[in-house]
Amino acid sequence: MYGITELSRSLKGSRALVTGAASGMGRATAAVFASEGARGAVTDYDADGARSVAEELTNAGYQAQAWHLDVSDLQAIRNVVAEVEKAFGGLDVLINNAGISGFAAIDDDQYDTVWDRCLSVLLTAQQQMIRAALPALRQSSHPRIVNIASTEALGATAQDSAYAAAKAGVSGLTRALAVELGPEGITVNCICPGPIDTAMTAFIEPEHKQVFAKRRTALRRYGLPEEVAHVTVSLCLPASSYLTGTVIPVDGGLMARNA
Ligand code: NAD
């Protein structure tokens, strides 16, 4: 290209590990990586779900492999990261996506249980995944970490304080690690999805979704998992090498809308 440095927009040969990849945004993210020529480690607590996603991708001619992984189990994290590294000959991309919802009022009897589970699965697991993957990422030519938070990290809902606190923690973790790992060329970014149609939001009545989306989002609709996945994957291109420490809402304009 004349006059400007050529940076690769190809993920061919990249090796990506996605947590919570049996469903929703994780599944869509694994599929976008695979379709872009990356090798995808499809990991999930739901072993059958992960296997069927990996099979689907393999049958479509892509490179994907499934691993059972509960991200709240530190030893399992270490084992799976080591196995993926061995199977793929390294690791370039870590997507911390696995998640659960966790509604409870602050004075609810179940609050402590919900709090502990949210902090464990949504926040502690992300730092443990990063620490386990770091030695492999340090060997990569384009090391990328993307942490999935939520717009609940930016402006929250009643009875969602455990989830919101964990997700706000993810944005802090992202910024601090971007600064800490920046000198090594490792980028760390965070995506805050808004209302997205996945299993996590399936309990909400369709009419309620429509009313909420019309009243609150700029685009007047829920998002598709693929619409988040494409942004996530774009942050992992070798060419996305100067983008780090960002917290990006992918929310149909939810956070931008004032009236
Ligand atoms: P989803 O329920 O479709 O997928 C979540 C996946 O995470 C499932 O496959 C589940 O098995 C897996 N998972 C749950 N606990 C796990 C554990 N301990 N170990 C490993 N895997 C585990 O939900 P989704 O909407 O695709 O959620 C993906 C991420 O996006 C989550 O972090 C969620 O908090 C976040 N998010 C979702 C929305 C939304 O509206 N759907 C909005 C903002 C943020």
From TrEMBL:
InterPro entries named among the record's database cross-references: NAD(P)-bd_dom_sf, Sc_DH/Rdtase_CS, SDR, SDR_fam
Family of this protein: Belongs to the short-chain dehydrogenases/reductases (SDR) family.
Q: What is this protein called?
A: 3-oxoacyl-ACP reductase
Species in which this protein is naturally found = Marinobacter zhanjiangensis
